[in-house]
Amino acid sequence: MTQRTVLIAGGAGGMGLATALRFAADGARVILADLPGPKLRDAAARVAGTGAAVLDLPLDIRSVDACRETVARAADWAGGLDVLVNAAGVWLEGPADAVSEPDWDRVLDVNLKGAFFLISAAIPFLAAARGVIINIASDAGLVGNSGAAVYCASKGGLVLLSKALALELAPRGIRVNAVCPGDVATPMIEHQAATYGGDDPDGYKRRLLGHYPQGDQARFIQAEEIAGFIHYLCQPGAAPITGAALPIDFGVTAGY
C-alpha cells in the first residue's frame, strides 16, 4: 500500500480510525473525512504520529454536495484515489411504529445515501487506479434484527448496493466489497448501551453477547480486527474477491 491513497468516510470513528492507522502503517496517504471538530483533529493527529501523510476533511455525509466536494478535495490533494472506505454509520433501534420521518432520513442518509454519492464521485479516480471500494455494512444487513428495522434497511441496502456496483464497475477495474461486522468494541456500542440500555447499559451489552455461539467465551470484535480484514481486501492477493458480503461476527449469522 506504499504511497497509495485511502479516503475513509467516518475516519474519526472507531472502525474508521483503526482502518486509517492500519493503512498508515504501510505508508499509505490517508484522508479522514468526518464531522468537523476535535474528534476529527485528534484522529488526524494520531495518524500523523505514525509518520504517514494525512489530510482531515470536514464532511456532513448527509449532503450530496459535501460528498462530491470531499472526493474532489481528496483527489486534488493526493493526485488521485486508490481506496475508498465507507465507515460512517449511525444506529437506531425501537419499535417500527415509533419511528419518525427525521429518524428514517438520518439513518438512511448516513448509512446508505452518503456512501452511494461518495462512491459515485470517486468512480473516475478509482477507475484510473484500478482501485477498491469497501463498504462497512453489518451483520444486520444480512439477517433481520427485531426492533432495528430502519438500521437493517440501511445496511441491507448497502450490501446489495455493493454487489450491484461490483458488477457494474468490474469492467473498469474497480472491486467492491461489503464487510459485515457483528458488535464491535467502539464508542458507538457504548453509545448504544447508554441510549437504549436504560438503567443497565452493561446488561444491554451482555444481552448482545448472549446471541454469540461462544457462550461464556463471547466477546466483542476489536476495531483492529476489522481494520486488518479491510486492509487485506485491498491487497493484490485479494483480486478475485469482489461483490462479496463478508461477515465478521463470530458465527452469529452462520445459523440463519
Features:
alpha/beta; globular; about 260 residues; 2 domains; 7-stranded parallel sheet
How many separate helices? 8
* The named CATH superfamily of the largest domain: NAD(P)-binding Rossmann-like Domain
Largest sheet: 7 strands, parallel
Number of strands: 7
CATH topology of the largest domain: Rossmann fold
Global mean pLDDT: 95
Q: Which CATH C-level class of the largest domain is it? A: Alpha Beta
Task: Please mark out the parts with pLDDT under 50 across 5 or more consecutive residues, or reply none.
Answer: none
Secondary structure: helix percent = 40-55%
CATH architecture of the largest domain: 3-Layer(aba) Sandwich
Q: Terminal Cα separation, in Å?
A: 36 Å
Instruction: Provide the gyration radius in Å.
Output: 17 Å
**How many separate domains make up the residues?**
2
Write a concise synopsis of the structure shown:
The protein is α/β, with parallel strands linked by helices and 256 residues long. Helix content is 46%, strand content 14%. The protein folds into two domains: 5-182 and 222-247, Rossmann fold, CATH 3.40.50.720; 185-220, no CATH class.
